[in-house]
């Protein structure tokens, strides 16, 4: 067995086994089937990477098929967002399809079901039908309408389609087995009446197919070879196969449903219903809020497509549901950004630094490396002057011997610039430091090659020239929930765990090279973390979102707790 074969996940093993048993490789076809009733989240990203990854591995087409069978919840906005997300992740679908493409075909098949005695119109209330379903340990009871004549069923079904009945008066049910141990096989609903406008078919249809009916048949029409679903659809597989049994023609590709486990992400939720609740109740600023687990939120926060693909590949495919720590996703983001993000200087909690022996009015432009991980990234020039901003935490008036940043009487290097020594401070009436005064070693400029420049100094801090600084709004994002599994306890409202400190908006000062930064561009603010230009940026204001820190600070906090 080769190394590659040993590393196959169980889905790939199924495909390899099918091909070994005679299934033609050129008949392989996959699909990603989102319902356009919300924005895609990180769980969908794993499914996208699985299906499109299989397409790339086996050189097989992958369809993007929208499961648009519920017009009450679906919108064109969601269709457009889903397409954008899939493309942004780096994938291209073979064909764009919709379940609504097959509404007529599905209807015609349903008519044939009625004629073959495999379906009937039930006119009971949903409450009565629920009572007759039975329980997992008790069989169901048959509907009083189960033995309607074929003629009556055909008449009622056509009139349902024509919009003659109010919603809830009739449904079409498959006639299977009310005593089945699988409750999904107890005469499942195939069609319900919905007088709702559909974003593609308009008002042409008054009845809409249920997911279980439409999904497998759509797979069949598109000749999907392997229909991959999450584990909650395992019990649906028997029904999926039963529906196919009724329409399958020998010689055609018969889709095979197989299930994999959801990968839940810690400190977030991935239920579309709960994500919608967060949006509608104003806990976040829309579906693309950078705190959301949506792909659009992750994109806005500054995550890269490569990092999300790598995350999906790292967690892999499994048969058991488990909780993945969000720090693994953040690690993948950090790892990718480290390779590609230009290094720049920004100060987010400023205190004024005055170099008292630097000539007033003088300025010089110093060379700074753009990315030590990328030789081709080159260098840029940053302005230096007598008055700078440094981070407040980079100075301590009374420091111990283990403090290697700026303090009185000790030296520190300014990144790409000079060695300075703390001399004195100015304070306000409340004792807060307002200015730090220092002196610089005139011969110590970085890269100058002088003896002074080569001196070993333990601490290096970043800075921004005050007269050249660019003001920016900086949004510091943290995890949206304080609990690692906010929706795990059914007795506690998941919103109880919303982190009140998940967003802090501050004013930052940036080096002038960032004045023309455009939305979507990503940078490393040296010693602070990775940041991305937000779409709210305009000619009057530049806005940065914090993507991720340089290291995992949550791990330290949680270990202390």
From TrEMBL:
GO molecular function, one term: ligase activity
Subcellular location per the Swiss-Prot or TrEMBL entry: Cytoplasm
Compositionally biased spans, kind Polar residues: 134-146
Catalyzed reaction equations: tRNA(Gln) + L-glutamine + ATP = L-glutaminyl-tRNA(Gln) + AMP + diphosphate
Residues given in the record as ATP binding sites: 35-37, 230, 270-272
Organism: Flavobacterium suzhouense
Protein name (record): Glutamine--tRNA ligase
Domain named tRNA synthetases class I (E and Q) anti-codon binding: residues: 460-534
Membrane-crossing segments per the record: none
Subcellular location, principal: cytoplasm
């Amino acid at each position: 067995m080769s190394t590659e074969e040993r590393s196959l996940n169980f889905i790939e093993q199924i495909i390899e086994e099918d091909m070994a048993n005679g299934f033609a490789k050129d008949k392989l076809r996959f699909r990603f089937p989102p319902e356009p009733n919300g924005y895609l989240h990180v769980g969908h990203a794993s499914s996208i990477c699985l299906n499109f990854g299989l397409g790339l591995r086996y050189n097989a087409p992958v369809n993007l098929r929208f499961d648009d069978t519920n017009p009450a919840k679906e919108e064109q906005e969601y269709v457009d967002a889903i397409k954008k997300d899939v493309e942004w992740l780096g994938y291209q679908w073979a064909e764009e399809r919709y379940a609504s493409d097959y509404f007529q075909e599905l209807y015609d098949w349903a008519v044939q079901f009625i004629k073959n005695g495999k379906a009937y119109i039930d006119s009971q209330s949903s409450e009565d039908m629920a009572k007759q379903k039975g329980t997992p340990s008790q069989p169901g009871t048959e509907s009083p309408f189960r033995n309607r004549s074929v003629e009556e069923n055909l008449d009622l079904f056509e009139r349902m389609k024509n919009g003659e009945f109010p919603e809830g008066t009739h449904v079409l049910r498959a006639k299977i087995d009310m005593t089945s141990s699988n409750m999904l096989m107890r005469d499942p609903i195939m069609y319900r009446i919905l007088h709702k406008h559909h974003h593609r078919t308009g008002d042409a249809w008054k009845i809409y197919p249920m997911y279980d009916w439409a999904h497998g048949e759509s797979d069949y029409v598109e000749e999907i070879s392997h229909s991959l679903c999450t584990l909650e659809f395992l019990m649906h597989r028997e029904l999926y196969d039963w529906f196919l049994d009724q329409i399958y023609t020998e010689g055609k590709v018969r889709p095979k449903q197989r299930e994999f486990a959801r990968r839940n992400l810690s400190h977030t939720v991935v239920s579309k219903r709960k994500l919608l609740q967060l949006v509608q109740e104003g806990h976040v600023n829309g579906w693309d809020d950078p705190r959301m687990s949506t792909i659009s939120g992750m994109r806005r926060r500054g995550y890269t497509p490569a990092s999300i693909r790598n995350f999906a590949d790292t967690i892999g495919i499994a048969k058991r549901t488990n909780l993945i720590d969000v720090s693994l996703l953040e690690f993948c983001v950090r790892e990718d950004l480290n390779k590609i993000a230009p290094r720049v200087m920004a100060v987010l909690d400023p205190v004024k630094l005055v170099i008292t022996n630097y000539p007033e009015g003088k300025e010089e432009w110093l060379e700074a490396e753009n990315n030590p991980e990328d030789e081709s990234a080159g260098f840029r020039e940053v302005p230096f002057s007598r008055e700078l901003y440094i981070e407040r935490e980079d100075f301590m008036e009374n420091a111990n011997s283990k403090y290697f940043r700026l303090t009185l009487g000790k030296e520190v290097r300014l990144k790409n610039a000079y060695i300075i020594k703390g001399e004195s401070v100015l304070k306000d009436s409340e004792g807060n430091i307002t200015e730090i005064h220092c002196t610089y070693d005139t011969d110590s400029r970085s890269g100058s090659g002088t003896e002074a420049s080569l001196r070993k100094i333990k601490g290096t801090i970043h800075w921004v020239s005050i007269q050249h600084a660019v003001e920016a709004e900086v949004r510091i994002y943290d995890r949206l929930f304080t609990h690692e599994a906010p929706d795990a306890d059914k007795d506690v409202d998941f919103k109880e765990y919303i982190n009140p400190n998940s967003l802090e908006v501050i004013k930052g000062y940036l080096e002038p090279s960032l004045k023309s930064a455009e939305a979507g561009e990503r940078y490393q603010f040296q010693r602070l973390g990775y940041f991305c230009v937000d779409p709210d940026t305009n000619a009057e204001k530049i806005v940065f979102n914090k993507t991720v820190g340089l290291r995992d600070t949550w791990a330290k906090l949680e270990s202390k707790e």
